[in-house]
Amino acid sequence: MSSSEAAASVSTARARASGAAVHAGRGHRWWALAVISLAFLMVVLDATIVSIALPSAQQALHFNNDGRQWIVTAYSLAFGSLLLLGGRLADLFGRKRTFIVGVVGFAVVSAIGGAAVNYTMLVTARAVQGGFAALLAPTALSLLTTTFTEPRERARAFGVYGAVAGSGSAIGLVLGGALTEYLDWRWTLYVNDILAVLVLVGAVLFLDSSVPEQRPKLDIPGVVLVSGGLFCIVYGFANAETHPWSSWTVWGFLGVGGLLLLAFVGWQTRAKHPLLPLRVLDDRDRGAALLAALIASAGLFGVFLFLTYYLQGTLHYSPLKNGVAFLPMVGMVMVMAQLSTNFLVPRFSPKVIVPIGMLLGAGGMALLTRLGLHSTYPQHVLPPLLLIGAGIGMTMPVAISRATLGVRMSDQGVASATANTAQQIGGSISTALLNTLVASAAIRYVQQHPSDPRAAADATLHSYSTAYWWAAGFFVVGSVVTALLFRRKRG
Questions:
Q1: 26-208+275-485: CATH class
Q2: Which residues contact 105 (CB under 8 A, 6 or more apart)?
Q3: Residue ranges per domain, the chain?
């Protein structure tokens, strides 16, 4: 055999092996979708699953009411501030490897948090858990983006993933209520270990390994600037929930965060290996998608937070019944996520579908303002929940898909992290702003109705109504912005 024939033989063998690998990959990619979606569900539901268990945890570990907020905030601080770093690490060290590290780390600290013997141990575990979530969430999304490249399959995959993103918080309420009521508050953390085992086995079996051909150096100054900036932003909004907006702990951290993020953008224009290459943001549709994710998350938190207060405080639902009340909305999100990504967007384009979804969300929020002391679930709560679910299902999957569409393979991790960051910042802004508006509205109502024997109850309902109107406003603004920014193209 001549050298040329030998070379041709080797080339043919490599091609066959490559084809077999691709065929195998195509055969198990739907299992990979299940693994990726379950991992992301684990991250998303952890933002709410622990919330329902806080009274029980407080009683067991003997901490004060102020401490309750920090069990939630510690997770969101670490998660929000480290997302871009987590996404870039996935690009640098390989997505499957980073994914597995994130799953194992998340599981270990969840077990430590569940076994906490004091408040400090629990808060520390929650913060570290948020750090591993920041590694896991963008890696999961970048794996999805690189696994599904064919347009029709990508639409189906992002329909599933977007449904998880839009309904994960509600699922956390259901699961948290059930575990707290029938087992123990510690199981709201231990349950992550059960999920993590399933994810880990699936990752080993179904996720394809990928090692980047070129591994540029990590942009350390960029990491410090953006992580510090995002930390200050999230921390400032968290403080706004318990302090007046005039407090230095609010505006001081928000101001410093804004300055650090501006410095980060300036640094990225001249960094040799930028953490977030500005080419990732240099696309009109991608900008529209990121704004849609931010605004939809802001509006969605208004539903979960204040409708939960209403169901438990006014209608006296148990934690489990409260969680179950959101299930129809979850179902609607899942149905509309598939319908929008597979049929509506390819036919009418995001420029039409996303604004309509935002308007449906606004309509659902407006209906929630009619809730009263004697409202019933089937007549007054269920219809707006279904409307909001339809709106989120038409908005969130499309936004997440468009936020990563067309990005270089080497930038998929950091692009995914940017989408996750938009969602996280939207939730932080909404929670802080709406909590402040609700408190102010309740105080004003009591002052204006001194002779009302039901002033306290009516003030509470009035304050919730204020939050729903603002959330409706978020959705209306989102509808206008996305209608203007998205290009008029289908698919």
A1: mainly alpha
A2: 128, 131, 132, 135
A3: 26-208+275-485, 220-274
